What we know:
Layout: H1 7-17, H2 21-33, H3 38-57, H4 63-87, E1 95-101, H5 109-120, E2 123-127, H6 134-144, E3 148-152, H7 159-171, E4 179-183, H8 189-195, E5 199-201, H9 204-214
Parallel strand pairs: 1-2, 1-3, 3-4, 4-5
Helix pairs in contact: 1-2, 1-3, 2-4, 3-4, 3-5, 4-5, 5-9, 6-7
Amino acid sequence: MYFIGDKMKQQLYNAMVELEEEKVITLVKKALENGEDPYSILEVCRKAMSEVGDRFERGEYFLNELVIAGEIFKTVSEILNPELKKYGKRERELGRMVIGTVEGDVHDIGKNIARTMLEAHGFIVYDLGVDVPPEKFVEAVKKYNPEIVGMSCLITSAWTSIEETVKKLEKEKLRDKVRIILGGAMVNERIAEKVGADAWTNDAKKGVDICKSFVGAE
């Protein structure tokens, strides 16, 4: 269990982990009314979602709980997005990014968290969804001309999809036009090196910093 010094944030974290939707919404709105930094609220929710994922891995939660958690987080994101955009507002668009969970994987919690935070910091994010085949990534790169491609993967059986996607981008002569970042519980430095990705992370905030560095932003 993750422990936070601030009482309200601790209550929010606990409510998220226990999937108490009404309490989560009430606490998020109350925190905003109290002038709490929306990013810090999102960070508490992100850590709570990480705990939900851990419980799923340990067999304490099942797919139904993951779906419920994802819906709660989606609602929280909708509440926070207006304030996050103010907080992360930039005079110009930082960059464009195509993001998706690779083929063979239908998890979207981490991807959705990353998208929310990236958008809050000024990125235009084209979310391809889950179970995205290599061809769809290629089509999106051609269509949107992004600087960055983000691939999420939470199961080891989908590692080959990451590699196939990178190869497709290379075959279409698009690889040199984009930076590739991998995210998700099942990616690591070894996988990133094997497929030829530019970076990897399991932390959404760090992911934002990496993407900002890709486009030369501070």
